[in-house]
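Justification of computing resources. Each target in the renewal requires a structure prediction run like the one illustrated here; the chain below, 130 residues long, is used simply to show the kind of job we budget for.
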Amino acid sequence: MTKSKISASQNFGEFFRLKRVGLGFTLRAFCEKYNFDPGNISKLERGILSPTIDQEKLEGYAMALKVSKDSPEWVTFFDLAHMAKGTLPPDIKNNQKTISLLPAFYRTARGGKLTKEKLNKLIDLLNSNS
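Resulting C-alpha cells:
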C-alpha cells in the first residue's frame, strides 16, 4: 500500500484488509500462514471486533502485514488501533506538552467550522510541540 492509499478517514479494519489483500493473501491463506483465527480476523477487518492495543499483538499483526517498523504506515497502524479503542497512543499519552494542547483542540473541534486563522493557529500549536 502506498502512502496515497492511506486515508485519514480509514479505520483499522479497512487498513488491515487493504494490506492483506495488497500482499495477495486470501483471508484463510493469511490466517493459516501466520496462525491467526480466521473468524477473528474477518470480524476485525469488518469492524465487528475492535482491535487490541496490546503492543506485542499489534506488532505481530504489523509484521505479518509487512508494515515496516517505524514507517509512517507503522505509526498509522498503531494510531488506528488506539483510535478504535478510544485511547491515546503511548507516545502521545506520555507527552505532557501534547496533552496540555488537547483542551484547545477539543474547543476548536467543537466549535464547528474552523476559520483559516484558527486552523493555522492550531497547526502552529501542534507543530511547536514537535
